[in-house]
Amino acid sequence: MLRTSGAYPERLAAAADRRALDWCTAAGLVPDERTAERFRRTRSGALAAYANPRAAAVTVDSLATWHAFACLLDDHLDTRADADHGQLLSGLAAVTAGDRRPVADPDSAPRHVLAFDDLWSRTTRSMSDPVHERFSRHWGEYWRTLGSESLQRRDRARLSVEEYIRVRRITTASREAVDITDHFEQRSLPDELFGHPWHRELLECAEDIVGWANDLVSWRQEADGGEVHNLVLVIARTTGRPHERAAEEVRGLIEERVRHFERLADRPPHPGLTQRAVSLRNWVRGYRRWAGESGRYRRAADCGRPTAAASE
Predict the structure, then answer these.
(1) Residue 117 falls within a domain, yes or no?
(2) 98: left (phi over 0), alpha (psi -120 to 50) or beta
(3) Which end of the chain has fewer surrounding CB within 10 Å, N or C?
(4) Residue 71 falls within a domain, yes or no?
(5) Domain residues for 288?
């Protein structure tokens, strides 16, 4: 069982969801009631609050809005052919790199690029140069990986388990969530500690746990939609096992990674990394609780039922 500290500030979650919905609506990302209902079922505010039980309201609000944007973008991409993803992802990557050309004409720029530009500006304007550079690097890799996933779907690529795990670590956006929380909580690590081997390994464990927990609750929906980027589906395909048996294997893999995570987190090698063990424990535990409660990957009638991803 993952150990953490603090009581979950659930009172912040509803307020964070309201503010995120207001921003997303103003940005044109919630065009209809169907999208609004899916937004409410996702509960980005709950994720932000669960993962940051002692954070300030501004941190919870900011992380909730970023997560809501990422979910709405993912939903938007799901409605478009993979061949159409390139231009949008290129625009997002350009904003990340400081290129203003994709948003120079607001009347013709894609609404998701305009929204991202606003969110990016709000978040980065008070960042130090080293933290800004790291944040940009992480998001740049995220956009490139989403583009690669689109090409893999188009080409019906068959990833091995090892290849998929490397990709999934990036698409969890855990590093970006850590960057956002660190910035608003004023605890960003210097580069030498962020790149410490212990920290890299702990972060990879966290990425695996949250990514596979997400895959565990979403594999049925993704299988129905023709998705191939899901650990349950990759294991089922590469081993010939039924999906349910592959899902059981993923549960076991998650628990193995949790145990390794705890062994690492119990022994931070530097005083400056002690708080990182606490914050990543909170992130992993909060994400798993959110994944078990969120209705994002379930039918509306099932949204009150916790899933196996919530067990710890």
Answers:
(1) no
(2) left
(3) N
(4) no
(5) 189-312
Count the Cβ atoms, other than its own, within 10 Å of residue 7: 7
The rounded radius of gyration (Å) of the Cα atoms in the chain is: 19
Q: Write down the residue that tokens 């910035």 correspond to.
A: 183
CATH value at residue 292: 1.10.600.10
pTM of this prediction exceeds 0.85? yes
d(CA 91, CA 103): 8
CB count in 10 Å sphere of residue 238:
14
Q: How confident is the model at residue 82 (pLDDT cuts 50, 70, 90)?
A: low
Is 43 a member of any domain? no
Q: How many domains does the chain have?
A: 1
DSSP readout, 133-177? Answer: HHHHHHHHHHHHHHHHHHHHHHTT----HHHHHHHHHHHT-HHHH
By CB atoms closer than 10 A (0-12, 13-18, 19+), residue 221 is: middle
pLDDT score for 83: 67
